[in-house]
Specification:
heterodimer, A: alpha/beta, Rossmann fold, 2 domains, eight-stranded mixed beta sheet, 10 strands, about 45% helix, globular, B: about 800 residues, alpha+beta, Beta-Lactamase, 5 domains
């Protein structure tokens, strides 16, 4: 019968066309919104996972029920991806709350902050108040790492990896699990 | 095995029991031990491997979290330290293979993990699945597979140890058992030996020796006590047995005697039974035995079956004899049987019919009687059936033949009287009474003498008849015949014949026939016949006369022709010319010479005269020939007339004639007619006999036959009509056969053609052949006819007495 055969053929054509488009999009990184989303999907998952391998100073969690707060500084590159991942999940009995933070007070209320590229200038003092407050800082630029950020995402052979500034985290009183350290590309320890 | 075991000596039994018991105990212990070892090994192995899996899970959690399979693979590689681990795998959260490890080169197919943690021994290895839990969340699964080589090795070494221990134990047990069994087996063996001796030697004085006071000791005591009792009873038994044997012998002899008597009685009873059975079954009389109480047939013999047509098996069925009995007889029998059944009479008989299933009827004389024992009330009825079908049929036939006889007697026109030797009239018919005008009362007495008296009174000549009767009484076997003349003018023929039964004369049958009328008719017939003969003869002569006239007529025709021709010749004669010449000569008689020589007319006269003379000579010859013919014809007529005169003479006069000549004459008389009808005549004279007879009669017959043959040929309408006349002669007989190929004679007419008045021709008188046959008879010969049927011609043959040595036949002449 020509009709179903035609239909199947046209379906195949359409699928091939979509594949070609995807290949094109993949070949031009940084320019297409879809690639950015994939990268931040992974980064969102990592952010969530980091909370499992990090132990905050006991003083930060006086109340056993207090949720862990993830603060996104300035621009939010995750959309609602991060909320999706953390929604309904608990880490050691605590809920996770996502907040967009701008002011210093807002930043200080978070337990983990993420600083996307270009937002570093809003937080010049990564080693001062934040360290003292015992907040885990996560960024994604060399500039962030140089400024004393604790965990920095690095793109290595198309894979998202991270480096850890153990000196900075210890300074803040945070204990980073050896398992996490094992996965890091580089670990900067106290000199 | 158990039977074999039970036959073993006690010694061996005891040893075997020891060994079996100890061996089984050891075996049970060893099997339990090994099973337990195997169980604990497996349990420990699963536990150890689970711990290992959990450890790996813990170490791979971060790698799974951060999608770092390299790190997970690195973690798995550490498993090399455990040689029994065959393969390991880390599955992601979605069940996909994340990192793997394999001990051997052979690739392992990692199937998707189960939902829950499991530990299973499958196909000689242990599979362990453990979840990877991080922060209370399952983020993947660890799979480990370990081989069971360790277990196998351990089992092997354990089996070896158990085998060795068992072997050593059984050896030791055997040695011990061999020694210990004697405590029990020795006293038993001794007891058995004593018992065997008692059995074989029948020596009840032997005793077994006792060793202790245990069960065996008590057994030996009991055995010895038993032997003592047997010993005392044995002697008492010996005495009793001698007595018993004598009694048994006596009793046996007594029994044998009475048995022989019983057998003889049985045999006689059986013979009696067989005799009865044979008679019962072979007797031609049907017999049935019925219980009076129940009217139930309980014994029926074959003759009964044959007569009634009811098989013995069915004879007890209800309604069978109602059906088998002829409906006309059933009610009659019922009436007769009622008093018998009620016991008012002891027997009854009836002649009745049985209708068989095939429809044929059997007559039987049925007789029922009672017999039995009045005192006990047991009563049976015996019914006998005698087949009387034949008798009944004979009676019926007899009645029929009597009726036929009677009808026959009455239908004959003869008066018949049957007298037996006692002088009694045993039968007569009505015609007899009529002829003798005998009153019925005379006949009714049956007294022959009265009848004779009555008869004699009517006869013209009673004395002769009386003598005749007297002579017949003395000759019972003689048959006689005479004619009685009555006083009133009647004539009666009387026949008397002896009456025989089975070759023996028992009486005499007289028959009387009133022939008065016949006698008168015979006389009339004789007169009529004579008249007819005369007429016939005249008719025959008329026939001859007709033939003669016809023949004469034929010849007269020729005579007429001859006369006319002669007249014509003379009328045209050249003689007239002669007269003219004479006249001419007369005119010139003055000078005849000159006239004849000089006159032109005169000169031709001589030549003319010559010619004329020749013509006249011719004429004369012709006329003479005609006249000669005329004379011959007239001679012929004369002959015919002479012949007529010859045959017209009165008959009864015999003379010697040649048969062929006679036939020729007859043929000649018919010649014209035969020629006219174109019939070929063949003369086949094989002999020329000369007979002495009445030639007119023969001529009359022959003319008649030839004429008939001619008609027969004519009527057939065929072209080759032929009549053959054949003469043959034998010893004493001359035959003339007139054979034609005409219409023939149908077989049914062959006997009738000689009857008076029979003819097949419209113009026939019907007495030609009749008178011919009579004429042949008168001259001592015969006339016979033969024909193969219609269209086959006919042959009539006259046979005449002939003596060949008589006057030889002369050549036909004057």
């Amino acid at each position: 019968m020509p009709a179903p055969a035609m239909k199947r053929f046209s379906h195949t054509i359409r699928r091939l066309a979509i594949c070609a488009t995807l290949v094109l999009l993949a070949a031009t990184p940084g320019l297409v919104q879809a690639e950015v989303t994939k990268e931040y999907q992974v980064k969102a998952a990592f952010l969530y996972n980091f909370t499992k391998f990090v132990e905050w100073p006991p003083a930060r969690f006086a109340d056993a029920q207090r949720p862990i707060v993830i603060g996104i500084v300035g621009r939010n590159p995750f959309g609602d991806e991060l909320a999706k991942i953390t929604g309904g999940r608990k880490i050691n009995g605590r809920d996770i709350v996502i907040r967009l933070v701008a002011s210093e007070a807002e930043v200080l209320s978070a337990d983990l902050i993420f600083v996307s590229v270009g937002e570093e200038e809003h937080l010049p003092d990564l080693t001062g108040t934040l360290q003292q407050a015992g907040i885990l800082t996560v960024g994604e630029s060399p500039r962030f790492a140089a400024a004393g950020g604790m965990i920095t995402f690095v793109l290595e052979r198309d894979k998202i990896r991270f480096q850890i500034n153990q000196a900075a985290s210890e300074q803040a009183g945070l204990k980073i699990n050896a398992q996490l350290l094992k996965l890091a590309i580089t670990v900067q320890r106290k000199s | 095995m158990p039977k074999h075991f039970s036959n073993l000596p006690i010694r061996s039994k005891l040893v075997l029991m020891f060994l079996l018991t100890s061996g089984l105990a050891l075996l049970l212990a060893s099997v339990s031990f090994i099973a337990y070892q195997r169980f604990t090994y497996k349990r420990d192995m699963a536990r150890d491997l689970t711990i290992t899996a959990d450890m790996i899970a813990f170490n791979s959690a971060s790698a799974l979290s951060f999608d770092d399979s390299g790190s997970a693979t690195e973690t798995l590689r550490g498993l090399v330290a455990q040689p029994h681990l065959m393969a390991a795998c880390v599955y992601g959260k979605d069940g996909q293979v994340f990192a793997t490890y394999q001990r051997d080169r052979k690739p392992v197919a990692f199937s998707p993990p189960p939902a829950a943690a499991t530990a299973r021994f499958v196909d000689g290895h242990l599979d362990i699945y453990r979840p990877v839990i991080l922060g209370g969340e399952t983020i993947g699964t660890i799979y480990l597979r370990a081989d069971l080589d360790g277990l196998s090795a351990q089992m092997r070494s354990f089996s070896l140890i158990v085998g060795l221990v068992m072997f050593a134990s059984i050896l030791a047990a055997y040695a011990l058992a061999h020694r210990l069994q004697r405590v029990i087996s020795n006293p038993m063996t001794q007891l058995a030996t004593v018992a065997a001796r008692v059995a074989t030697e029948k020596d009840y004085a032997l005793r077994a020796q006792k060793h202790g006071d245990d069960e065996i000791g008590r057994l030996i005591d009991g055995f010895n006590e038993m032997l003592a009792q047997i010993q005392s009873r044995d002697s008492a038994l010996g005495a009793a047995r001698a007595n018993l044997e004598k009694r048994v012998e006596d009793r046996t002899a007594e029994l044998a005697n009475s048995l022989a008597l019983l057998k003889r009685a049985q045999k006689e009873a059986a013979q009696e039974q067989a005799r009865f059975k044979f008679i019962f079954e072979s007797v031609p009389v049907g017999i049935s035995l019925v219980e009076m109480s129940g009217e139930r047939l309980h014994l029926v013999n074959p003759a009964h079956e044959r007569i009634t047509g009811v098989p013995a098996a069915e004879s007890s069925a209800p309604g069978v004899f109602e059906r088998a009995t002829h409906p006309d007889d059933y009610r009659r029998q019922l009436e007769l049987a009622q008093p018998f059944i009620r016991g008012e009479v002891d027997r009854y008989s009836i002649e009745k019919r049985y209708v068989h299933p095939d429809g044929h009827v059997v007559w039987a004389l049925l007789t029922s009687r009672k017999f039995g024992d009045r005192s006990t009330g047991w009563q049976q009825s015996v019914t006998t059936l005698v087949d009387i079908t034949e008798r009944k049929e004979t009676e019926e036939r007899l009645a029929k033949s009597l009726s036929v006889l009677h009808a026959t007697l009455e239908s004959t026109t003869d008066g018949i009287l049957v007298i037996d030797f006692a002088g009694k009239i045993s039968n007569y018919n009505q015609k007899f009474a009529e002829i003798w005008r005998m009153p019925p009362d005379v006949l009714a007495t049956g007294d022959n003498q009265r009848a004779i008296d009555y008869v004699l009174s009517q006869l013209k000549d009673p004395e002769t008849f009386t003598r005749k009767i007297q002579s017949l009484l003395t000759q019972p076997e003689a048959a006689s015949f005479d004619v009685l003349e009555f006083a009133d003018g009647r004539v009666v023929e009387r026949h008397s014949q002896p009456h025989r039964v089975a070759g023996e004369t028992v009486g005499r049958v007289w028959s009387f026939r009133d022939v008065t009328e016949r006698k008168r008719a015979e006389e009339e017939l004789r007169v009529a016949h004579q008249q007819l003969l005369d007429a016939s003869r005249q008719a025959g002569m008329a026939e001859v006369a007709t033939g003669v006239l016809h023949n004469v007529g034929n010849v007269l025709n020729s005579v007429n022709v001859s006369a006319t021709l002669a007249a014509d010749h003379l009328r045209h004669s050249k003689a007239a010319n002669l007269a003219k010449v004479c006249e001419l000569l007369d005119q010139n008689k003055a000078d005849v010479g000159a006239f004849l020589t000089s006159d032109p007319k005169g000169r031709i006269i001589p030549a003319y005269l010559g010619t004329l003379a020749g013509n006249l000579a011719e004429e004369r010859t012709a006329v003479l020939a005609e006249l000669n013919l005329l004379r011959k014809n007239i001679e012929h007529i004369k002959d015919i007339v002479a012949m007529q005169q010859n045959y017209a003479r009165n008959s009864g006069f015999t003379e010697t004639v040649s048969l062929p000549d006679l036939i020729d004459d007859a043929l000649r008389m018919n010649a014209g007619s035969l020629a006219r009808h174109d019939v070929e005549l063949v003369r086949d004279y094989q002999a020329r006999p000369v007979v002495t007879t009445d030639k007119h009669k023969i001529l009359q017959i022959l003319i008649n036959l030839i004429r008939n043959a001619k008609y027969a040929c004519d009527d057939s309408g065929r072209a080759d009509k032929r009549i053959t006349v054949r003469i043959t002669a034998g010893a004493g007989t001359a035959r003339v056969a007139i054979i034609d190929n005409g219409i023939g004679i149908p077989a049914e007419n062959l006997t009738r053609i000689f009857s008076h008045g029979f003819t097949t021709r419209q113009t026939g008188h019907g007495f030609g052949l009749h008178s011919g046959a009579l004429a042949a008879k008168e001259i001592g010969g015969t006339l016979t006819a033969h024909s193969d049927g219609p269209r086959s011609g006919a042959t009539f043959t006259i046979e005449l007495p002939y003596k060949p040595e008589s006057t030889p036949h002369a050549e036909p002449g004057v």
